[in-house]
Amino acid sequence: MFIKASTKPGRILAAHTAYSGHIFEVIQQTIDTPDGLRVERDLIKHAPAVAMLALTPDQKVLINREYRVGINAEAFALPAGLMDPGENPVVAARRELAEETGYEAGQISEMCAIRSSEGMTDETVHLMLAQIDESKRTAQHFDQDEFVTSQLVPLADVIKAVQSGAIGSAQSVAAVSYYLAFIEGKTN
After folding, report:
1. What is the mean pLDDT of residues 135-156?
2. Backbone region of residue 165 per phi and psi (left: phi > 0; alpha: psi in -120 to 50; beta: other values)
3. Average pLDDT over residues 41-50
């Protein structure tokens, strides 16, 4: 089968940190690849993250509106955040959901994990399915440098927003698509 993970990694000959910031660092590397090439690459080392497709029993999705520096504008996306060191995805999802939105998750399960750009970063985002009860909400606890507005939106409207590009975050598009392709049809 063609789609089978290779067990042979590249051999890192040299590596040094070119930049170290709050969320990521850039490592410049010289690598002998498994197919025999010697290459120079910059790697963005990034902490793992979670993104939550948080659904109510009546199929409303929790959507966040938040300023994002990458587009220098507000973006609409699923709740998401970085995992703390040693934290598993379920614990991180529960914590991030409560901190950002005030909603306490009931059942949480991992749909899949995605990588945003394997050619330049090791970032992995765990896409989580969370069940929430809209009557169970507590105070939000933002990080010092964030402010998030959350709202429950009917799933049909979220799908339209993904189709139109109004929701464009890769992790949000992937989570909604995964849910529609592999979960929704099996539960209805």
Report:
1. 81
2. left
3. 96
